[in-house]
Fold this protein.
Amino acid sequence: MSVHHGTLLCLGLLLMISGAIMAFSYSSSPTKVPLMVLGIFLGMGGLSLVVAGVCMAKKNFQVGVPGHFLLHPPTGTRFSPQQALAIQRRLDRIRREISTDAVSTLPEPEPSLPSTPPSWTMEPPPSYDTVMKSQEHGEQINQEQSQQLNHEHDVQQHFEHTECMNQDNSQEF
């Protein structure tokens, strides 16, 4: 039942109760007659709203084809009975095809593992000490190379500087 149907039912019950209170609070005084008539009209209006809400709720309630949850989508849209029946037939056909496929195919036997493992042809990894010594040696080589490059760079700059100075001196003469 949607929100609209629930609203109609609640509003109808509220009008019926308020109409009944107004109608039955009638005493013999003639000034209360219009209040009683108003209560009766409110009660009748509330009754008509309740009946309309129930009828709308029953009209929109469709019984789907039993058998699968996909036939009742959660979005609020419903399949027509013809669509639901067609979907149910298609699902049944797919289920039958899958079950016959599962029965007809035999699982392939797993290849047996050899009784002995293959011989180890790779050399064992180096020890921790060997790795650490090679890293220290590599760091020393890197430091020596960087020092040599720095020295070569300094020599090159000095050479360029002296060459530039010699050119300046030769131009002055």
